[in-house]
């Protein structure tokens, strides 16, 4: 739950270790929440804004929705649309200020379960730069003034590439004491001094987390820290990585609702061979590809941007298309890369499908019906698709970076260990080498291939292990100084 909510602030009550509250903007008229508590007013960029709190109790979690017209009707552009400086100032920044101010006071204002949590045993978990103002406001408004002195904050870094950068003049909109400018002022050798919200949050938080061990290491390097590596290294004492888990209710081949129709089939570890064969045939039929059980199906599922490396697949396509394989690409994003998907399908229509857009149903069906998942991401803090793939007995071929390095153990044919193939540099020829070894194993070493599938499916990829480690960090944030 911690990592699925956009712009979320989460806190837990450590007396019981079971009170979890997720705080999110109210983007639309949802059915479950109902208004609760008293409205509050906050100053945002000199404007007085009223917040109404709404509450829903779902799957053991108290969801608190922050309601104000500034959040309405932006579901498709929650990250800011055109990203111009004026748009950033007047839209994204205002939304994040209001969310963080209201979230800090939610424990006092929202009587979840009939009572307010108060501040005695709270640990706030803020996610990415969008909520990185929360640790700053907690310190500046409250702890510096003798209030909420026992509350703590943990900031989780999901993607350091997006930092909430803006001109220094934006500081005036944050409604903070002037001495706090030092937290936000950051020097970029290519762009000079600027306001950096992520930098301030990293400095102010009591603990820092990121979503894999590999990404934690990369964030400390000039290449991986995107200009914030110095600050992160200074905060190393409070920083660690915890690999994400996945929702094994939604993503489970035994009960996946998207596999119950149209010729697909649910399957388990015991029935993986016949189940995947049936899903593969159904996928080929659905997308108009030749229905062939012997041909390996390679899938790519992801955003179409520079990070995900779909351009490397395009560069390698002449070789890939010559290997008697079928390739299915699903994604949306940059216009030129969407056009690339259409072009690849047009050039190799007998074996390539490029689905521009996103379909949850098709993503599930591709994961079940494909033999191989290709993830050539240039950087990947954790990655979920490779975890979904292994859960479904689909073998990943990934760039050995961030969480992909942590979760996909490279296959060793001599000892019959490993979960897939990795390649060290984000280059088409390196990807081709790894994919070539994968295809050779698929075609010529059937028992080894079945071993790869089964080892992937036998892993515990749920949130259980990660949740225990999160709890350890929350306790450390609360009691270890």
Can you give a write-up of this model?
With 481 residues, the chain is α/β, with parallel strands linked by helices. It is 35% helix and 20% strand. It has two domains: 9-245 and 464-479, Glycogen Phosphorylase B (Rossmann fold), CATH 3.40.50.2000; 257-460, Rossmann fold (3-Layer(aba) Sandwich). Strands 1, 2, 3, 4, 5, 6, 7, 8, 12 and 13 form a ten-stranded mixed beta sheet that branches. It has a six-stranded parallel beta sheet with strand order 16-15-14-17-18-19, with helices on both faces. Helix 1 packs across helix 2, helix 7 (272-286) packs across helix 10 (360-369) and helix 8 packs across helix 13. The longest helix has 25 residues, at 85-109. It is globular and about 70 Å long. It is an enzyme of class 2 (transferase). It holds the Pfam family Glyco_transf_5. Keywords: Amyloplast, Chloroplast, Glycosyltransferase, Plastid, Starch biosynthesis, Transferase, Transit peptide. Its EC number is 2.4.1.21.
CATH topology of the largest domain: Rossmann fold
Q: Estimate the global geometry from the Cα principal axes.
A: globular
What's the architecture of the largest domain in CATH terms?
3-Layer(aba) Sandwich
CATH class of the largest domain: Alpha Beta
* Total individual domains: 2
Oligomer: single chain
Strand content bin: 15-25%
Which bin fits the share of residues in helices? 25-40%
Number of helices: 15
Give the low-confidence spans.
1-7, 12-18, 81-88
Rg is: 24 Å
Number of strands: 19
Main location: plastid
Pfam families: Glyco_trans_1_4, Glyco_transf_5
Keywords: Amyloplast, Chloroplast, Glycosyltransferase, Plastid, Starch biosynthesis, Transferase, Transit peptide
GO biological process, one term: amylopectin biosynthetic process
């Amino acid at each position: 739950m911690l990592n699925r909510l956009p712009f979320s602030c989460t806190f837990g009550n450590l007396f019981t270790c079971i009170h979890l509250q997720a705080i999110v903007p109210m983007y639309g008229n949802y059915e479950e929440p109902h208004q609760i508590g008293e409205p509050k007013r906050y100053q945002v960029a000199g404007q007085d804004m009223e917040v109404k709190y709404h509450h829903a109790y779902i799957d053991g979690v108290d969801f608190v929705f922050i309601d104000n017209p500034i959040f309405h009707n932006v579901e498709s552009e929650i990250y800011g649309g055109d990203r111009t400086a004026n748009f950033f100032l007047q839209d994204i920044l205002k939304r994040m200020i209001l969310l963080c101010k209201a979230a800090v006071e939610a424990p006092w204002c929202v009587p979840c379960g009939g009572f307010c949590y108060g501040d005695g045993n709270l640990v706030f978990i803020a996610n990415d730069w969008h909520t990185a103002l929360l640790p700053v406001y907690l310190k500046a408004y409250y702890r510096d003034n003798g209030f909420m002195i026992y509350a703590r904050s943990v900031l989780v870094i999901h993607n350091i590439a997006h930092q909430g950068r803006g001109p220094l003049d934006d500081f005036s909109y944050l409604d903070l004491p002037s001495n706090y400018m030092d937290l936000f002022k950051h020097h970029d050798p290519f762009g000079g001094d600027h306001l950096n919200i992520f930098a301030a949050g990293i400095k102010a938080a009591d603990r820092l987390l990121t979503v894999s061990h590999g990404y934690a290491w990369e964030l400390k390097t000039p290449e991986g820290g995107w200009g914030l590596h110095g600050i992160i290294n200074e905060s190393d004492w409070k920083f660690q990585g915890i690999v994400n888990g996945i929702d094994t209710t939604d993503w489970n081949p035994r009960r996946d609702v998207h596999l119950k129709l149209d010729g697909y089939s649910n399957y388990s570890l015991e029935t993986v061979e016949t189940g995947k064969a049936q899903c593969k045939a159904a996928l080929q039929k659905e997308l108009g590809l030749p229905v062939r059980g012997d041909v390996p199906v390679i899938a790519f599922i992801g955003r179409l941007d520079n990070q995900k490396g779909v351009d490397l697949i395009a560069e390698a396509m002449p070789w890939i298309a010559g290997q008697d394989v079928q390739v299915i690409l699903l994604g949306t994003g940059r216009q030129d890369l969407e056009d690339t998907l259409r072009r690849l399908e047009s050039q190799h229509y007998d074996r390539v499908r490029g689905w521009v857009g996103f379909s949850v149903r098709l993503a599930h069906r591709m994961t079940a019906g494909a033999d191989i998942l290709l993830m050539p991401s240039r950087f990947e803090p954790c990655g979920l698709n490779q975890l979904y793939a292994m859960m479904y007995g689909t073998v990943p071929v990934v760039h050995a970076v961030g969480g992909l390095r942590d979760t996909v153990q490279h296959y060793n044919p001599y000892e019959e260990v490993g979960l897939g193939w990795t390649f060290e540099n984000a280059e088409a020829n390196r990807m081709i080498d790894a994919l070539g070894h994968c295809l050779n194993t698929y075609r010529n070493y059937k028992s080894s291939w079945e071993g790869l599938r089964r080892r992937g499916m036998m892993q515990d990829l749920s949130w259980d292990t990660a949740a225990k480690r999160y709890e350890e960090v929350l306790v450390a944030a609360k009691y270890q100084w």
